[in-house]
Amino acid sequence: MPKEATKRGKAGKVEKRKGKKDPNAPKRGLSAYMFFANEQRENVRDENPGISFGQVGKILGERWKALNDKQRAPYEAKAAADKKRYEDEKQAYQAESD
Predict the structure, then answer these.
(1) Measured distance CA(52)–CA(60) in Å, rounded
(2) Which of 8, 33, 53, 89: disulfide with 26, CB 3.0–4.6 Å?
(3) pLDDT, tens digit, for every residue of 15-61?
(4) What residues contact 36, with CB distance under 8 A and at least 6 apart?
(5) Residue 86 and residue 27 in contact, taking contact as beta carbons nearer than 8 Å
């Protein structure tokens, strides 16, 4: 009987390897922050030419934290809609594979 795929990590601990992800599986829904970041990323780069990738993320995080609930609402709505899309696609995918 074949053994499970394992490898030795640091300190001799056994780690299980992840299985391959199905490329046809539905993509997970984006969070409200990700919708915000995708929308604002170019603005941050235009305002700060030559800025590093990490600094862009830091500025986006600061801007997100500065938003009030009313300003976050459109992004939360997009995230909720995308979550529903993912759940619907996931159900269809699982029904198809069964």
Answers:
(1) 12
(2) 89
(3) 788 888 888 899 999 999 999 999 999 999 999 999 999 999 999 99
(4) 60, 63, 64, 67, 72, 75
(5) yes
CB under 8 Å to 14, separation ≥6 — which residues? 6, 7, 8
List Cβ neighbours of 67 (8 Å cut-off, separation of 6 or more): 36
Half-sphere exposure of residue 50, counting CA atoms within 13 Å on the CB side?
Answer: 0
* Spatial contact of 24 and 93, defined as CB atoms under 8 Å apart: yes
- DSSP structure string for 3-70: PPPEEE-GGG-EEEPPPPPPTTSPPPPPPHHHHHHHHHHHHHHHHSTT--HHHHHHHHHHHHHH--HH
